[in-house]
Structures are given as C-alpha cells and as structure tokens.
Amino acid sequence: MLTTSLTALLIHLLTTIAKQENLNALELVCVSIKRHVIDEKFARDLMGVTLVKTWERIRGFTEQIRETDQNRSIYNEIQDIAETWGDGRMWDNSPRIVKAMKEIFTE
After folding, report:
1. pLDDT tens for each residue of 67-82
2. Based on the number of CB atoms within 10 Å of its own CB, is 32 exposed (0-12), middle (13-18) or buried (19 or more)?
C-alpha cells in the first residue's frame, strides 16, 4: 500500500504530465494559427476566451517548466496568441506581423 506522501507525489506527477500533454496540444493549435493552417478568426471565436484564461492560469506553471528546463521558449506560441487576443487584437494584425510584412514587400 502506498503511503500518503508517495500517493500525493504520484498524483502530482500524473497531473503535471496531463497538463503538459494538454499544453502540447494547445501549443500545436497556436502554431497552426500562426502558420495559417487554422483560420485565426474561427479559432478565436471557438476558443478565444478559454485560451486567454488558460494562459492566465498556467503562466506560473509554465515559468517553472522554463526555469527547470532552462528553455525560455517553452509554450511561447500559447503565450503569444493568448497575450495578443487578451489585448483585443488578432495575431495577423499584431505589430510584429505588420512590420515584417511591410519589410518583405517594400524591399
């Protein structure tokens, strides 16, 4: 029989793995939005509020993963889309995209 502390640790580990699997799927959605595989307006209508609220809840968890792995780019795509949508903007209209497009087409 597992001790209480071992059981708690196991539950914590399984929860962490489940969170990471869900975040990996969400990251894939965000990459797909940025690469125009998924229509951004459709995605925002479908999951905009959920994505922004999810990012607000997982920000601390994400920072822990980034520090542990010493990789600041973990879940960057989620952060980019969530912060853009949270500010009421669309990703395609974000200043970074507009600036990059102007640079490409004015050369």
Report:
1. 999 999 999 999 999 9
2. middle
> Which residues does the chain have with pLDDT short of 70?
1-3, 6-19, 91, 93-104, 106-107
> String of b and e for 43-78 (b: at least 16 CB within 10 Å)?
bbeeebeebbebbeebeeebeebeeeeeeeebbebb
Taken in order 65, 67, 71, 72, the sign of the CA dihedral is positive
Domain containing 22 equals 4-105
Please tell me the distance from the alpha carbon of residue 32 to that of residue 18, in angstroms, as a whole number.
Answer: 21
pTM of the model: 0.68
Instruction: State the sign of the Cα–Cα–Cα–Cα dihedral 58, 64, 89, 92.
Output: negative
